[in-house]
Structure to design on (487 residues):
C-alpha cells in the first residue's frame, strides 16, 4: 500500500501505526535538516509521546536551506510526511509508521518561507541536524566569521543563505512582534552542541545587529544534548525492505534497536515531555555526551578508516575482521577510556562492550563509506580532543595516532587492493593532494592547521605519526595493525 493519510488506518498486519489522529495535531517545532537520523530519533520520541495523547500541539514542520533539500521535501509530501521506521534487531525486524511530522516548508534561495514559519508564535522550538561540520567552526572550535556564507548573511540579513541566518531573521521578527524567542535545539553529534549553536547564532547576529545578538543571547535558550542511534543511509535495499512489510515508502529509515537522548532542561518557550518516552533530562549532559562522542563516534572512525583501506564494506564487517576489532578494543580500553568519566549505570569499560555489540549487529547494513565520510570534521571533532588530553596527561597515544596515519593513507584515494576511493569529504581535493605529498614528507599531513590546529607541532605526536605512516607506506595496513596489537 502507498503510505498516505488516506491509507494510514489500513496498515499491513504487524506494522505499528500512529495511535492519534493527524488532523488533531498542530505545529510547535521546525526541524532544519530533515534526514534519516532525525526521523529515527527526535521525531520517534515525539510520535510515541503523541501516542499517549500528549504533545498534540508540538508536531514537526520539516525544513531545509539547500537546493537539494527540495527533493526530500517532494518525497515526504508525496506520502503526507509519514515515515516507515524499520528496526534491525538481530532477533527479528519490525516496522512502525510515525506521523509526528505534518508538513515540509517550501525550500527557497532567500529562506523567506522558512523565516515566516519560524516567526509564528506557535513555533516554540527550532531544531537542527546539519552535521558536525555545519556550524561554521574554526579549527580551534571558535566561530568562523570569515566563511563566505557567514559574510553573505552578515551583509544580507534579510535574505540569509544559512539556517543560522534564517533563525536570526525569525528571532528579530519575533522580538518586534512580541512573540518572544524560541528554543534553539541542536540534535547533532557535537560535544556541547547547544553551546556551539549559541556561538554560531549569536556570533553571526553580532556581525550585523549587536543589539539583536544581545537579546538572543539573553532570552533564547540553547540546550546541550547527547543523541545516539545508529541510522544507516537509505538505498535500494531499504526501499525493498519497506516493500517486504507491504508498504510503498519513498524514504523509509532503518535503525538499530537502541536509542538514547540526554537533554539539558533549558527550553525558554516550553517543551514536550520527552522523558515520558525514554529521554533523560539532566543538568549534567557533558558526562553523557563525552562518553558517547569519545567512545562511539570516535570508535566509528577507528574502524571505518582501516575498513575502507581493506575493502570491508560494512561496519559489522569491520567488527568481524580480527585486526580491526582488535584495534577498536585496544584503543578504546587503553587510550580512550582513561579520559572518560563514569555516568549513572555505565562505566567507560562497560560502554566499550555495549558499543562492540551495537557495531557488530549484522542486521545493520551501515557502510564504512558513510561512517568515514567527512573525516576532516569527524577526526577533528571526535579523535583530536582525546589526543590533546592524552598528550597533556602523558598517557598512551599510539593507537590514536595510527588511526590518523590510516586516514592519511585513505585520503591518497586508493585501497590496499588498488581500487579507487571516491571523494568522500567536503575538502577531498586538498586532503588528497596533501596525502600524496605526505608519502615523502609525513609532516605535511599533520601540518594541516584546518584539521589539526597546533597538534602537528607536538614532537611526541609528530614522532608517532611518522613511525606509523612509514610502516603503512612500507608494509601496508594489516602489518601496521598487527604491529600495534603486538606492542
Amino acid at each position: 500500500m502507498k503510505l498516505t493519510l488516506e491509507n494510514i488506518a489500513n496498515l499491513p498486519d504487524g506494522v505499528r501505526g500512529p495511535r492519534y489522529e493527524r488532523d488533531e495535531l498542530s505545529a510547535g517545532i521546525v526541524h532544519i535538516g530533515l534526514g534519516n537520523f532525525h526521523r529515527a530519533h527526535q521525531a520517534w520520541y515525539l510520535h510515541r509521546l503523541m501516542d499517549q495523547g500528549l504533545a498534540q500541539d508540538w508536531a514537526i514542520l520539516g525544513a531545509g536551506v539547500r537546493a537539494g533539500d527540495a527533493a526530500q521535501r517532494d518525497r515526504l509530501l508525496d506520502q503526507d510526511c509519514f515515515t516507515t521506521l524499520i528496526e534491525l534487531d538481530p532477533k527479528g525486524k519490525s516496522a512502525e509508521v510515525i506521523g509526528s511530522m505534518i508538513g515540509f516548508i517550501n525550500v527557497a534561495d532567500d529562506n523567506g518561507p522558512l523565516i515566516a514559519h519560524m516567526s509564528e508564535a506557535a513555533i516554540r522550538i527550532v531544531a537542527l541536524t546539519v552535521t558536525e561540520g555545519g556550524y561554521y567552526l574554526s579549527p580551534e572550535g571558535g566561530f568562523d566569521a570569515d566563511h563566505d556564507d557567514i559574510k553573505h548573511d552578515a551583509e544580507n540579513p534579510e535574505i540569509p543563505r544559512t539556517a543560522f541566518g534564517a533563525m536570526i531573521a525569525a528571532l528579530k521578527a519575533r522580538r518586534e512582534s512580541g512573540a518572544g524567542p524560541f528554543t534553539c535545539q541542536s540534535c547533532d553529534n557535537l560535544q556541547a552542541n547547544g553551546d556551539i549553536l549559541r556561538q554560531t547564532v549569536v556570533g553571526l547576529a553580532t556581525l550585523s545587529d549587536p543589539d539583536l545578538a544581545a537579546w538572543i543571547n539573553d532570552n533564547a535558550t540553547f540546550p546541550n544534548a547527547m543523541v545516539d542511534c545508529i541510522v544507516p543511509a537509505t538505498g535500494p535495499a531499504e526501499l525493498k525492505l519497506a516493500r517486504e512489510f507491504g508498504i510503498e515508502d519513498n524514504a523509509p529509515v532503518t535503525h538499530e534497536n537502541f536509542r538514547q537522548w540526554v537533554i539539558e532542561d533549558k527550553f525558554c518557550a516550553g517543551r514536550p515531555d520527552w522523558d515520558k518516552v525514554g529521554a533523560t533530562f539532566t543538568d549534567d549532559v557533558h558526562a553523557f555526551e563525552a562518553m558517547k562522542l569519545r567512545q562511539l563516534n570516535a570508535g566509528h572512525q577507528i574502524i571505518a578508516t582501516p575498513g575502507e583501506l581493506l575493502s570491508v564494506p560494512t561496519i559489522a564487517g569491520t567488527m568481524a575482521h580480527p585486526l580491526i576489532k582488535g584495534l577498536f578494543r585496544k584503543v578504546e580500553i587503553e587510550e580512550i577510556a582513561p579520559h572518560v568519566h563514569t555516568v549513572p549505570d555505565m562505566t567507560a569499560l562497560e560502554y566499550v562492550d555495549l558499543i562492540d555489540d551495537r557495531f557488530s549487529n549484522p542486521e545493520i547494513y551501515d557502510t564504512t563509506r558513510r561512517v568515514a565520510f567527512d573525516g576532516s570534521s569527524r577526526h577533528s571533532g571526535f579523535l583530536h580532543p582525546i589526543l590533546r588530553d592524552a598528550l597533556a596527561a602523558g598517557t598512551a597515544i599510539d593507537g590514536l595516532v595510527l588511526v590518523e596515519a590510516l586516514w592519511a593513507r585513505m585520503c591518497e584515494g586508493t585501497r590496499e587492493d588498488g581500487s579507487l576511493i571516491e571523494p568522500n569529504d567536503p575538502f577531498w581535493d586538498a586532503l588528497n593532494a596533501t596525502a600524496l605529498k605526505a608519502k615523502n614528507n609525513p609532516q605535511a599531513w599533520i601540518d594541516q592547521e584546518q584539521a589539526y590546529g597546533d597538534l602537528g607541532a607536538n614532537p611526541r605526536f609528530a614522532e608517532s605519526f611518522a613511525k606509523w605512516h612509514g610502516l603503512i607506506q612500507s608494509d601496508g595496513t594489516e602489518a601496521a595493525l598487527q604491529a600495534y596489537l603486538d606492542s
